[in-house]
Amino acid sequence: MQKAEVYFVKLNELNKIKSLLPEFTAPLGIKVHFGEEGNITYLPSSYVKKMAGMVKNPTLVECNVLYRSPRSKARTHRELALKHGFNFAPIDFLDGESGDGAMEVKISGEHFKICYLGKGLAKYKSLLVVSHFKGHITAGFGGAIKNLGMGLASRRGKLAQHAFIKHRVNSEKCIGCGLCITNCPVEAIAFAGNQKAKINQAICISCSKCIAVCPVQAIAIPWGRDDLKTFRERLAEYALAGTQGRQCFYINFLMNITEGCDCAGEEMELMTDDIGILVSADPVAIDQASYDLVAKQGEEFKKQNGDAQLEHGEKIGLGTREYELIDV
Description:
This protein is an alpha/beta fold and about 325 residues long. The protein has nine helices and 16 strands. The protein has helices spanning about 45-50, 75-85, 145-150, 155-160, 180-185, 210-215, 230-245, 285-295, 305-315, and strands at about 5-10, 30, 60, 90-95, 100-105, 115-120, 125-130, 135, 140, 170, 190, 195-200, 220, 245-255, 275-280, 325.
């Protein structure tokens, strides 16, 4: 396979990106992450605003999250986005108010034949995927692939990527309020003898409504190391689904690089100095190049290895790991 071209642009020369952008077919969506409440290292809106100014009539597009957060509902998600400065273009939450608006996309994956993406994605002929490259506890790192795969998935699609893991209740945190029981759509939760909630794993459908309503965050997904490769492969397959039938182009910002992702509602320490911006038409190549540059600068970042994303992405035809890095 021919090497993909990945362009390197310095952060203080951002205007050079305009000459690298293709002529997009309208309507155009800019896929972006608005940052979690309490997080300060997400990609600043000022950079996304500059990207939006380089293209015609863009809409900022995103989907809601599964877990308990202002970003789990479109109304409060929009309020947070505006609070974080994303007020320079229309905002479209592709999966509706609560994440239930889904459309089916067929692929020939090893894990999925049908993926469930935000229903509103159907109207966008082009995507400019603007990603903040950083670490991620389960994906290894978050870049273009994760922005596509998890970021465009509806609630059902997100659940499908997580479905092999069931939810658990931390009985020490549980206060026995019963909110998870009354909100469970399949009656999979009941009080145990100690008046603590307990989830019946045979019934649980991993919808995460219990996580969203628990007032003390006593319910979580107990990730294990053996599950990570499967999760990362599923992520790559959903990324492939997001590209189907549309023109896509990618920009990764290598700045404010942290061990955790922008979904963490807390301040996090930086792992490296800011590096720059990568631009490419290939999501696998841009993430491979991003990882290589960050790991070269910060030895600690090597433990964020997300090779399964890249290996599987190349295998299923999402892109290539072979790239040529070109200074602009």
